[in-house]
């Protein structure tokens, strides 16, 4: 896990890879929603990955996502080794403040076996909660350090 | 060169997680690739496409592509048009919501609610029908 602390403003942007093909994308998405809805709703905002990466942003109104990430700390959540979210943030808005790798949590909790990419099941949701708790800690660190 | 009948249809949902409409598109996609058009339709990650993964882009260019978007910004459609230069058919989840006013989707994203599930299936049926048309060779690359 990488953490960088700077650029702090009132909210932290959470951008999950959201990939549909792998279970890691589903876990990333679930963890992001848990953080912004339940754990740190006042401190975080979810950024839409496809909008962030969309071509012709100026035409389609998506520049706001990139501008937010330029002016706020952003945590990326990666569902696989491709690092799509981190690469996008780094490319368009400057270095992300922290990166969460889902695979690290899958490795650390072999007792929790998510059911499928379509339905995480009870184990998968427990794992998403664990990942979300870790993200919430990073959010707090970013607030304290600034 | 592959015959048309051997082509696949790639379904690319928008991946949005801000509202339930992206989730409906994603759920519909899973119904299509796992059930209604299993073996004919496959799924690919939009972020990976936008990252520029070469083998993925080549595969998409060689096959048919359907995009499903959750909002009028149409990220999936616009991204695909930009990266691979074509989209064979497009769907907007808000259209299926408008067509089924009695099924107001619940705001919950994880998990989605019962109405959202029903809307997903209705959308999946439409997408699946389009998959068959595209593979019959009657339609494509005209969006």
Written account of the structure:
The complex is a heterodimer of chains A (146) and B (143). By secondary structure, chain A is an alpha/beta fold. Chain A has helices at residues 23-39, 49-53, 57-60, 63-71, 84-93, 102-108, 121-144, and strands at 2-3, 12-16, 44-46, 74-78, 98-101. Chain A is globular, with a radius of gyration of 14 Å. The model of chain A has no long low-confidence stretch (mean pLDDT 87). Chain B starts with 8 loop residues before the first strand and ends in a 7-residue tail after the last helix. In chain B, strands 2-1-3-4 form a four-stranded parallel sheet, with helices on both faces. In chain B, helix 1 packs across helix 6. Chain B has a single domain, classed as 3-Layer(aba) Sandwich (Rossmann fold). The chains are: A alpha/beta (146), B alpha/beta (143). Chain A binds chain B through residues 16-22, 25, 29-30, 32-34, 46, 48-51, 53-56, 60-62, 82, 84-85, 87-88, 117-118, and chain B through 13-18, 22, 26-27, 29-30, 34, 43-48, 50-51, 53, 73-76, 78-79, 81-83, 109-110.
Percent in strands of chain B: 5-15%
Report how far apart the termini of chain A are.
Answer: 20 Å
Largest sheet of chain B: 4 strands, parallel
Round the Cα radius of gyration of chain B to an integer and report it: 14 Å
By DSSP, the count of extended strands of chain B is 4
Largest interface: A-B, 32 and 32 residues
Task: List the SSEs and their pairings.
The complex is a heterodimer of chains A (146) and B (143).
Chain A: E1 2-3, E2 12-16, H1 23-39, E3 44-46, H2 49-53, H3 57-60, H4 63-71, E4 74-78, H5 84-93, E5 98-101, H6 102-108, H7 121-144
Parallel strand pairs in A: 2-3, 2-4, 4-5
Antiparallel strand pairs in A: 1-5
Helix pairs in contact in A: 1-7
Chain B: E1 9-13, H1 20-36, E2 41-43, H2 46-51, H3 54-61, E3 64-69, H4 75-84, E4 89-92, H5 93-99, H6 114-136
Helix pairs in contact in B: 1-6
């Amino acid at each position: 896990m990488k953490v960088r602390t700077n650029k702090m403003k009132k909210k932290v942007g959470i951008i999950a890879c959201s990939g549909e093909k792998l279970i890691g994308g589903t876990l990333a998405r679930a963890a992001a929603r848990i953080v912004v809805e339940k754990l740190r709703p006042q401190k975080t905002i979810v950024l839409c990955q496809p909008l962030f990466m969309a071509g012709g942003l100026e035409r389609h109104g998506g520049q706001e996502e990139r501008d937010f990430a330029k002016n706020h700390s952003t945590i990326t959540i990666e569902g696989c080794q491709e690092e799509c979210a981190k690469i996008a943030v780094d490319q368009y808005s400057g270095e992300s403040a922290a990166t969460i790798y889902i695979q690290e949590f899958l490795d650390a909790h072999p007792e929790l076996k998510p059911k499928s990419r379509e339905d995480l099941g009870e184990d998968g949701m427990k794992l998403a909660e664990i990942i979300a708790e870790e993200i919430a800690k990073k959010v707090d660190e970013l607030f304290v350090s600034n | 060169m592959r015959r048309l009948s051997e082509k696949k249809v790639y379904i690319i949902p928008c991946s949005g997680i801000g509202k339930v409409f992206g989730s409906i598109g994603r759920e519909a996609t899973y119904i299509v690739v796992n059930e209604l058009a299993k073996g004919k339709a496959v799924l690919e990650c939009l972020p990976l496409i936008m990252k520029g993964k070469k083998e993925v882009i080549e595969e998409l260019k060689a096959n048919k592509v359907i995009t499903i978007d959750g909002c009028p910004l149409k990220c999936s459609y616009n991204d695909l048009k930009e990266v691979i230069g074509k989209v064979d058919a497009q769907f907007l989840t808000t259209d299926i919501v408008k067509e089924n006013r009695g099924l107001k989707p619940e705001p919950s994203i994880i998990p989605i609610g019962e109405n959202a599930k029903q809307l997903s299936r209705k959308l999946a049926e439409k997408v699946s029908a389009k998959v068959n048309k595209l593979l019959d060779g009657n339609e494509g690359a005209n969006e």
